[in-house]
Amino acid sequence: MFVWICLIILVEVLTFGFTNKKLKAAGKRGIRILANIGFILILLVTLRCALFPPVGEMPTNGQYEITSNEYWLEEDRVDPYLESGDKRVLWVREWKPVDCDEEKPVVIASHGSCGSIDNNRSMYRELASNGYTVLAVAHYGQSASFVFEDGKSTGPSMIFIKQMTSLDPENNPEEAFEVYKEWMDIRTTDLNTVMDDYNNKNGKTEFVAMGHSLGGSAAYAMARIRSDVIGVVALESPFMYDIEGVENGKYVFNQEDYNVPLLNIYSDSVYPHLFEADFSEYANNKLFLERSNEQYTTIHYEGVGHMGLCDLSRQSPILAAMFSGGFQKVNARIQLDTLNKDCLEWIENIR
Question: Does this model's pTM top 0.85?
């Protein structure tokens, strides 16, 4: 699809150049202006399709029909990304199976930096079709888009953007450590709010914490914080919450083993670099990978970049390539099918 759209754009440009030249030579100025306007409109539509090619929902494979609803929660704290002093609000999308009496843990999902509430939508739907309730959380200020209950929407906070773009974890670990602590405090409080709210409404349950990138770091953290988290799925995430300080320019980690199963999934963006000396914020990833702990499962997908571990790889191959450092070698739909199947199988076998 992407290649065909690029060819269409090329044909459009060549056709426009030829037509414009002919009209100019014929002195048909009015027609040429209309043709230019028409070309611009067609090109914009084509570019929109190139950036976000039309794709439908991936089919689910479970036995249950699924449904979804969304709701908003207000936290009892001022939002750090708002100068107004307003309370922090969370946007939650709940996916769940229809007419399912099975008792299964609830999956709570946290998106990556500038990700979205639909970060791994195909996985949420697949899990729901297999009997799991999924709570996908949008973290205000750290998400690409955030929709409020009144329908108003906004993008990521400039505070967060400046933090991300100015971070230098290797050369200035002290500053990075302070930012990491702030991010983890924001994320873990958000997730605690959603999980406590769910328990208050539905009775106590068990959770599997899941996340991509920064969201996976928060998912790891929840296993340190809460006893009702029985497993973690981290899609290429550093153990950010485990960083306790900096000594002699190096991060100091809590190196205690986790007492719940961990599924650590990597792409080519990180896995080949785990053993490099200048990849210090991933030191615990390397440590736990080397430990012979039966509760730790590691999967590395070759030919896939960082964004190949979320639905952006299918929704926008161009943006995914930009954020991953190149186009992935594996078809996005096939890769997501594999990812979703592996995560479902692992969750089903936690106990």
Answer: yes
